[in-house]
Design a protein that fits this description.
The protein is α/β, with parallel strands linked by helices. It is built from seven helices and 17 strands. A hairpin with a 2-residue loop joins strand 3 and strand 4.
């Protein structure tokens, strides 16, 4: 952090409505979303308030994802719905899937982060003729990878689930980025970072959105409370001297913006630049913001 005596003011990252996605309403621990041609209801544990829209708006949903007592869940369909379809959101063409876990392959709150990535990368590219190398850990279906690639970066996209890496590659094709320099890796994040340290490979940008719990391709266990600090130290070691940014986001309960800020400092300590942190939010149709994770990011003084 640039100033050890004064914390930067928290700055919420607000995903502005665009394209084929809208958060219509939230409340009663649920959210009502317009996703392409369909209205869907999904859980939203943070939405502990009454809905704004009348009940008939919610009752008209095409699909509802209900959690059960075991922690799993299932979709209930009120009409014939395609389980896979394509949308445009945040200047990206994306394949949406109504998965059995209730996920879509889309985390709409990241759209503001995509805009930020494009801006900082393009600003650097305008000033330098050299390549800019970005590592995206826990990259999932690739929204941040695609945004960084659109801005001109060379990207390493890594996730431990082969299916979502393939899904991200499909998204790249839909965004006309298939020929861009993107390495698609199916690997364990911690092991890969340690190998990069030994190989003396360095990155000008690092993106990471670690899960609360996950498994690597060979059954490696990732528990955020046990593995995160070592992973952040590894990221510190592979961050280049001419680093441009680190973007760290998380959806784990208890990881407040201030927690994220302190953790980011493990990576960027003694580097000059601008640090920002806050909540990632998505506004609904009446302007109420749904908290949807936290972030902390650092960018170099250019």
């Amino acid at each position: 952090m640039t100033d050890k005596l004064a914390l930067p003011t928290p700055l919420n990252a607000v995903a502005q409505p665009s394209g084929d996605y809208r958060l219509l309403d939230s409340g009663d621990a649920k959210r009502l979303e317009q996703i392409g041609p369909y209205k869907v209801v999904r859980p939203a544990a943070q939405a502990i308030w009454p809905p704004s829209l009348p009940a008939h708006e919610w009752d008209a949903a095409d699909a509802v994802y209900e959690r059960d007592s075991s922690g799993g869940g299932a979709w209930q369909f009120n009409k014939r719905v395609k389980r896979e379809f394509d949308i445009l959101y945040g200047d990206l063409s994306l394949r949406v899937k109504l998965t059995n876990f209730g996920h879509l392959g889309l985390f709409p709150e990241h759209a503001a982060g995509w805009d930020w990535l494009r801006t900082v990368i393009r600003n650097r590219m305008q000033r330098s003729n050299s390549n800019l190398h970005v590592l995206n850990l826990f990259a999932y279906t690739g929204g941040s990878t695609l945004a960084a690639s659109q801005a001109g970066a060379h990207v390493v996209h890594l996730d431990a689930a082969k299916g979502v890496v393939d899904w991200a590659r499909k998204n790249a094709e839909m965004c006309h980025l298939a020929e861009r320099p993107i390495r698609w890796l199916f690997d364990d994040a911690g092991k890969f970072v340690n190998r990069e340290i030994r190989r003396n490979n360095r990155y000008q940008g690092i993106i990471l959105d670690p899960p609360t719990f996950g498994r690597g391709p060979k059954g490696e266990v990732f528990k955020i409370e046990n593995q995160l600090v070592d992973l952040l130290d590894g990221c510190r070691q592979i961050l280049a001297k001419d680093a441009l940014f680190v973007f760290y986001s998380c959806h784990t309960p208890g990881f407040t913006p201030l927690v994220m800020l302190n953790q980011l400092d493990l990576v960027t300590r003694n580097r000059s630049g601008r640090t920002e942190y806050g909540e990632m939010t998505v506004p609904d149709s009446v302007g109420r913001a749904l908290p949807s994770g936290t972030y902390a990011r650092w960018s170099a003084t250019e």
